[in-house]
Design a protein that fits this description.
By secondary structure, this protein is mostly helical. It has helices spanning about 5-10, 15-35, 40-70, 70-99. Helix 2 (about 15-35) packs antiparallel against helix 3 and helix 3 packs across helix 4.
Amino acid sequence: MNNPSTHKARKLTLFLILGLLAILLGLIFAVVAFNSVSAVDGLAGIYTLFGLIPVAVTVIIDRIFVWKFGAKKVNKVEFYIAGGFILLFILNMIRLQLQ
């Protein structure tokens, strides 16, 4: 009943999963860009690494909130935030189509 793997699965949140995925893909892209011949690609890799800083801060803040409030409450707020961004994205697409 008290399986440690299910206990860890209950602490997963939306921002943690998306953040870890972004960090993994960003690091892969940065390594590939650094190994390229072009200076522009190297700069793109550096730019990507700097872009991972806010993602890492978001994941750290997410873990602090999960520790303080619990995963269920944090996930609820994160899904509201994600839904708000999706709604803004849809409204922007509608606005661009009407121009």
